[in-house]
Amino acid sequence: MDKHIEMSYCRFESFKILAKNYLDVVEHELFGEIQQLLEETDMSPADVAENLMPLSKKKKRDPDVCLAGLIEVLKQAKEDATVAKAKEEEVAKEAEAKKAKEKEEAEVKKAKEKEEGKDKTSEEAIGDNMQADKIQE
Predict the structure, then answer these.
(1) Given phi > 0 = left and psi -120 to 50 = alpha, else beta, which region is 59?
(2) What pLDDT score does 3 carry?
(3) In what ranges is there compositional bias, type Basic and acidic residues (predicted)?
(4) Do 70 and 51 form a contact (C-beta atoms < 8 A)?
(5) Fewest Cβ atoms closer than 10 Å to its Cβ: which of 31, 51, 68, 136?
(6) 56: how many CB neighbours lie within 10 A of its CB?
């Protein structure tokens, strides 16, 4: 059985905890840019932590390199989200246009059927008039 679990996205306060745990950094000059990108981008805490983890348990990673790498990943995620949103909007516009076209075609068809019904009614009326004229003669 598949279960979907809704998880929150990583925001700056969560990031600071991850930075402290993985890099032993409380403040850094890149935190301001990271805060801005985290507000603009939806990324899970696991994805953020992946960029902060040391390469091995014996060797610590350079905080500057890790944070710069995280900034690049966040920028890429932001760009991907923008592209995906644009594509989604384009698909929605196409679907809306298709729906409008189908509605218009249905209205034209309905009007045509109604017009054909009037033609038949007028033809029947003309036929009735012709029969009445023949009877009167």
Answers:
(1) beta
(2) 79
(3) 92-123
(4) yes
(5) 136
(6) 8
Tokens of 32: 């301001």
Q: Which amino acid is at 8?
A: S
How far apart, in whole angstroms, are the C-alpha atoms of residue 49 and residue 73?
12
Instruction: Mention every residue, 6+ apart, whose C-beta is less than 8 A from residue 28.
Output: 19, 63, 64, 67
- Give me the residue spans of the domains in the chain: 12-97
Q: Please name which of 11, 63, 7 lies closest in space to residue 35, comparing C-alpha atoms.
A: 11
Query: pTM of the full predicted structure?
Result: 0.64
Token digits of residue 90: 């384009």
- Indicate the residue type of 104: E
Residue 30: which of 4, 59, 66, 56 has the closest Cα?
A: 66
Packing angle between helix 31-40 and helix 12-23, nearest 10 degrees?
130
Contact by Cβ (8 Å): 15, 38:
yes
**Nearest alpha carbon to residue 10 among 35, 55, 58, 43:** 43
Taking the C-alpha atoms of residue 50 and residue 59, their distance in angstroms, rounded to an integer, is 16
